[in-house]
Design goal:
By secondary structure, the protein is α/β, with parallel strands linked by helices. The chain folds into three domains: 86 residues, 3-Layer(aba) Sandwich (Udp-n-acetylmuramoylalanyl-d-glutamate--2,6- Diaminopimelate Ligase, Chain: A, domain 1), CATH 3.40.1390; 212 residues, UDP N-Acetylglucosamine Acyltransferase, domain 1 (3 Solenoid); 30 residues. Helix content is 17%, strand content 29%. A twelve-stranded mixed β-sheet has the order 8-11-14-17-20-25-28-31-34-37-39-40. Strands 9-12-15-18-21-26-29-32-35-38 form a ten-stranded parallel β-sheet, with no helix packed on it. A nine-stranded parallel β-sheet has the order 10-13-16-19-24-27-30-33-36, with no helix packed on it. The chain is flat.
């Protein structure tokens, strides 16, 4: 169903100040380069704002103090955050399992299912599992024995929640994720690799989001912990006994070795690698494709393989680009020196 809402109503939702006619109707949200007359867009900086006010968009979200040059809009503190809220208004509904337990799902008699939960077809919930109120399990989800899932958590198709894992409230787990598989632990004896029993668990705290096909291993002993409000992208590997603090961002294809600790508010960019038993201090940023093999103090910003302070790495990369020229000059000096030293 098409949605129509006034500019003034949107301004109220995002706690912004409407500019121009607050009664104009907004029917959608779109990027600055494709927004039409019925759309609202956003501009984070002056360059994008110039494009927006000259474009076809019906309205634009910009920062407080910006001149919209006669274009209707909304002035806010953070345009990107405001636009995210606006996108939520116009986003299509995601299909959801019907209320109750689908007849094709398998639920153990001792499992506890909270009221208003929705269990899709072919889901399996083992004995002793406890689901809070308003939990949504999409088709094919597996919930192991004695696992606990908090209120309003949503788990998408074919995700696996293994035995004794604890999931908090308002968590989102995307399709194919595996939470609580055995940690990668072996001891080599008599020329064989012997499996170390992984007796611990995984604790996912409230408001965490876990991307598709991400794997979070259970602890050897104790717990692997993902802190409150942390967001994890697709295809991330988190080893046994890892501790991730609150409000971290972990981007796709990052790998975190066992028993490492990631401080709260840290960002690990795509394809970062964290060696085992490493501590990344709170508020740190690890750039894409960086390998961290030693502890980082709080507030670090590192890049490179191995990780170095980002500015130092940039200087090294700039210097490396000059190596062909330097080598050519060195060869020329060697040639000239050999001519000087040649017997007459």
């Amino acid at each position: 169903m098409d949605i129509e809402i006034t500019l003034g109503e949107l301004a109220g939702m995002v706690r912004g100040v409407p500019v121009g006619d607050a009664r104009i109707c907004i029917m959608g949200a779109a990027p600055v380069d494709s927004a039409g007359a019925g759309d609202i867009t956003f501009a984070e900086n002056a360059k994008i704002l110039e494009v927006a006010v000259q474009g076809q968009a019906g309205a634009v979200i910009a920062k407080h103090g910006e001149d919209l040059q006669g274009k209707p809009g909304i002035l806010v503190e953070n345009p990107r955050f405001a636009f995210a809220k606006v996108l939520g208004v116009f986003a299509p509904c995601i299909p959801c399992p019907l209320p109750g337990i689908h007849k094709e799902s398998v639920v153990a008699e001792s499992a506890v299912i909270g009221k208003e939960s929705r269990i899709g077809p072919k889901a399996v919930i083992e004995k002793g599992a406890v689901l809070g109120e308003g939990v949504i399990l999409y088709p094919g989800v597996y919930v192991g024995e004695d696992a606990k899932i908090g209120d309003r958590t949503v788990i998408y198709p074919n995700a696996v929640i293994r035995e004794r894992v604890s999931i908090g409230r308002d968590v989102i787990i995307h399709g194919g994720a595996v939470i609580g598989a055995c940690g990668f632990g072996f001891v080599t004896y008599e020329n064989r690799h012997h499996k170390i029993p992984q007796t611990g668990t995984v604790i996912i705290e409230d408001y965490v989001e876990i991307g598709a096909n991400t794997c979070i291993d259970r602890a050897t002993m104790g717990a692997t912990v993902i802190g409150k409000g942390t967001k994890i992208d697709n295809l991330v590997q988190i080893g046994h006994n890892v501790k991730i603090g609150e409000r971290c961002i972990i981007v796709a294809q990052t790998g975190i070795g066992g028993s490492s600790e990631i401080g709260e508010g840290s960002v690990l960019a795509g394809h970062a690698g964290i060696s085992d038993h490493v501590t990344v201090g709170p508020g740190s940023t690890v750039a894409g494709c960086t390998l961290v093999s030693t502890n980082l103090p709080p507030g670090s910003f590192v890049s490179g393989r191995p990780a170095r302070p980002h500015k130092e790495q940039l200087r090294m990369e700039a210097a490396s680009r000059k190596l062909p020229e330097v080598l050519e000059k060195l060869r020329e000096l060697e040639r000239r020196l050999s001519e000087v030293e040649r017997p007459t």
